[in-house]
Fold HEAT repeat protein.
Amino acid sequence: MRKNLILYLMLILLAGAMPGFSQEKMEPQTQPVEQNVDAEEAPVISESNTAESDEAIRARVSNYLDQKAGQIPHYTFWERMRRIFHEFLYSGVERIFPMSWQSFLKSVIDIVFQIPLLIILLLLSFTFIVNVFIVTVVLVIVSYYKKARESYKERLNQRFEDVLTKYLFYDLSQEDVLKDLKQVKTTLGRDLLIDIFFNYQRNLSGEYRDRILELYDKMELFKISSRKMRSAHTYKRVKGIRELANMYPVGAKALIMKYVKDKNYMVRSEAQIAYAYLDEDTSFGFLNDMDQKLSAWVQLNILNYVKLHERNVPSFHHWIDSSNNDVQDFSIRMIDYFQQSENSEHLIRKMNHPNEQTRGYVYRAIRHLNLFEGKVPAKERYEDETIANKISILKIIRDLGDEGDFSFLIGVLKNENIQLKMQAVEAFYQMGESGRAFLKEYSESEDFDLKRFVEHIKDQRN
């Protein structure tokens, strides 16, 4: 009984400490007296009376708590935020504005907070102002950073060019140059120095170029270029490969080799071009296991490097049976370009290739290499070919044909396709007097329209 009484008193005190209770005076209650009496008489009253008294006290406490529960303020989250924001604006007015303005501004704040829509507009306005302020600060910081960066780059660029000019054209020693350039420790400064070295080695030759490459090597800038190849950014990887290929030819080939089959098209293309540039023995070893696409741009650049440096090339029949169709096409084109007529057997065999473009390269190579042994197999393939490849076969007959091909060309003249008829007429015309005589006779007896084709062929403007 005594323990229960103490517990109820603690609940009452706790409720009185809650918001709403502290602002009201408790009405005088006779409960404490009764509780004392009960407490004093507790030892002598019966158990039934004790139970009844306990129930009565519980009921009275419960009724009291129910009455006070309605007076306790229950604030929602938004109401609390509203009060906090209201107090924040009040305190801001008191700190910022003079006394003469404070009364008016506080009344405006009170009016605004009485209308929910105005509160929303006020919050939006406040948010907008804060955002504008943040954006302005960010723009100012970024602008300042860019200007500082550009100024720093200009100073470094001028410094590097002065030092390199004195080194290349005057009497500044290499030790002094290295001592000066190694003082630049920043990433931006090192990248700028590599760019300057790259431009110098492209525009200089002979001893001057070698001296630039020697500086690049002794400063170990190739390590920075190697790290670029491992970057997550494609443009950095391409730039790293290009820097190594041009300024670190001694060790770049081994570093670049693993990127010739990279999944990234740009990285792979740059690595393939760089490897061909560094491949002094022109072994074209990277073609052996090539399972990625070999683009036309890469093929053109490889051919350009080989021509520019007048390098000896291997026999490309090694890759004519590659499982990579791009490598096959490249091999056929290289056989054609470098006049490797000893590979005629491999070319003729490729006439049965399922790819139309590959067969087209074969027909072109047969014509350019004057492979007479390829004329008959080409004629046998004529009926099953596409229009483009039929034209290529007719060009073979035009350049390599003789009177024995007249019957074949007559069959083409009876075709309704204008392009094919034009090629057949041109083939007759290019075979000399016998072909031209046949055209004249045939046009008078069989096909009067052939005269127009002949006149078109004679016209030097075509």
User: Anything to note?
Assistant: Residues 2-69 form one domain. The CA atoms of residues 253 and 278 lie 6 Å apart. Residues 116-169 form the longest helix (54 residues). The radius of gyration is 47 Å.
